[in-house]
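User: I'm writing a tutorial on reading structure tokens. Could you give me a worked example: one chain, its sequence, then its tokens, then a sentence or two explaining what the tokens reveal?
Assistant: Sure. Here is the example chain.
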Amino acid sequence: MPRQLYGGAISCSIPDNYVDASDLRQVPDTQEVFMAPDSDLSLIVEVLELVKQDGAADSLEKALKFHFDSLAHDNAALSSEVSRYNLPSAAPHPQGPGLPTLLGPATLEGTQTVSKFNKPDSEADTVLIQLALWRIPDRDADVTLSVNWPVRSGATGEERDATEARKVFDEAWRSFQINDFGLFAGSAS
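And here are its predicted structure tokens:
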């Protein structure tokens, strides 16, 4: 059964046993953060202002790359690389009479090298980042869904299988639904 996010304005499939991070720590109002109870896997949905710089206003790929690079910056990544894009046809998805047009989802998969918990850079972990993007130009909004999964420990060299992370990501973005466009503060069309 899909989880209700932002008071039911958005829904998507998230495993039932995933912990809502807002029960443990403060989470910005623009984010919904869930963590696997038995691993370092996290899933984040975020409502953001529509990205327009560097050609992103007219390109799903450039907007997706902008958000990936923004995550790398926020994670203080030592390096980052996109390995795969999946872009939909350019046709927008009308949502019905009186509702804004939805672009996407566009998805990517990449890795970031991240040093956490004050570890030296030589012990930085490789983190698999999966990112989906929906754009709502009429409301000046981007919505991202990301899954983060450390696939290689920098300290031990231990490799971790990404099958479960990919499954969680695929189920979440494929079931993603905007139920109430009133969530988005931009100008209505």
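What the tokens reveal: The chain has two helices and ten strands. The mean pLDDT is 91.
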